[in-house]
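Researcher: Going back to the complex we discussed earlier. I've cleaned up the inputs and rechecked each line, so this should be the final set. Can you rerun the prediction on the complete assembly and write out the structure?
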Amino acid sequence: MHATLREIRKTPEGILTAQKAFEDFLTHHDFRLPREIVYTGCGSSHFLSQPLAMATTRLGGRGFSAPCSELLYSREWYPIGNPELLVAISRSGETTEAIKALDALNVPRFALTAYESGLSRKSDYALIVPAHEESVVMTHSFTAFYFAFLQLLLHSYGRETYDAELVSSLTKEVLGSEEYIREIVNGFDFRNVIFLGSGILYPVALEAMLKMKEMALFWSEAYPTFEVRHGFKSIADDGTLVVLLVDEPFEWHEKLTEEFQGQKARVLTVGRHDAGADYFIEVPELGPPANVVLYLPVIQLLAYYKAVERGLNPDRPRFLSKVVKW
Amino acid sequence: MHATLREIRKTPEGILTAQKAFEDFLTHHDFRLPREIVYTGCGSSHFLSQPLAMATTRLGGRGFSAPCSELLYSREWYPIGNPELLVAISRSGETTEAIKALDALNVPRFALTAYESGLSRKSDYALIVPAHEESVVMTHSFTAFYFAFLQLLLHSYGRETYDAELVSSLTKEVLGSEEYIREIVNGFDFRNVIFLGSGILYPVALEAMLKMKEMALFWSEAYPTFEVRHGFKSIADDGTLVVLLVDEPFEWHEKLTEEFQGQKARVLTVGRHDAGADYFIEVPELGPPANVVLYLPVIQLLAYYKAVERGLNPDRPRFLSKVVKW
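Model: Rerun complete. Updated structure for the full complex:
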């Protein structure tokens, strides 16, 4: 079995690993996250920095995220404000730009990583989530990192944290759609795929787009849901799969689905109900911001099976390495 | 001749139209833009809202941008802050979501549009830039809107405005690369294209990506320059054109170019010098934030000629209409 598939299937376990990392952190630190936080990372870690920033904002703080390279070379263009903490994310903790980015702002530094590493040693605080992975692409570690840090945010802001056992079992429920996902991929030889999500599900759409590129070398796109009608939808035709990530669809989601079906594209809705879609994967009720963890295994499996269907080895993506250095 | 080509070639004239609109606005209003501004738009207008927000931040204010639909349905996730003005952008002034978005924040409203319209009538202030277009896709009007509003920003913040005659003549110089752009497109039958830009050139890369999709129905991507190394570059091979938008390349741009060439992709640099690229289009010195207007005609011509080469009519993009309504 591919390491990638094994690691996606480890998501429920990853949630428990994350919970333990969060609790260990509390044991060793008398520390609360501040209100104004800048998050940074590269690639998948950047797409992880976005929902963390959004959750921060939604919970009453002010979260801002930017890729490491933009913080390093172009930060004068971004409304960074007056952050009280910089959170840098890197699975290995050895990504050159993430380590360099720690110096970009003159504020306390926090590392979110899977290892004692260059990143954690250079930071004032480190949340180490040992969701280790053999494969090049991030899968269950992304989910575990998100959950561990979300718990810390909730705790810091005086909110109730989630029941990790419950969340873990819900991810297991979602993983039950694996066979259905494989059938979608085998039954419809789509030529490109468009992921749509709004609010905190937009960065999940971005991560889905990246997974497709990394594993399946495949034409994939991601947009804030209703933005797609403004020009981008021209590329959708009978060779297109549109994946609509939406917690609770409303009337306009159905209209959007019809619009794509009118262009002969097929729509997969991942959410609470199908909204007229060709394919549907139900996501159990959990509510934002934690619900993010229920979408991730679905989009990872989709990329995995597309790669396999194309005869590629998802464990060994072309031109990529596990740790990106200069 | 296609309307689209005629309109791209009208860029120098558009700059003068923009200058006149800016001056007319000053004649009729005793108004200065505030420091904290939220910008919104859909599609190309959203990609125009981004460099305007970035210019605002760079000039000492705080600019934030979001697509209209995200402001309407998911704004609780975004660090909007306490803006003093909402600027909504729509070429026609009749885009449903742009008009609705004016109600999203309870602050004074400013319309940036080409017509007296639903948008301008619902706003407290309107900068009307009559860079009218027949074609579905925005080309020289994007450039003209940007320049007119930039002048208003500079004026409002007590900075020197640009000499419109000079800027106009520089856009004419850039348009001189039209034949070279056609040769690139005809000489290299690329299968996908990746646009890269950092800071204020990142939204230009996004707009380039959208132009390619709208006109040429083509696989196009856009990333903050160095982000591309983190997973996305897996898709680049001997069928890929990488377009590097960069004012003043430095050492790492050369390394990035080599990395892509190592994957057999070809690189086109648009900037001050070639940085080892396969193709090079020189952009005259103007400096940020105005330099944006010199890159736009280049990326528009590239999309135009790709569409023509693919036998498509750039004036009539598939599935798209000039004004997007619900």
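Model: Worth noting: Chain A has a mean pLDDT of 97.
Researcher: Good, that matches what I expected from the previous run.
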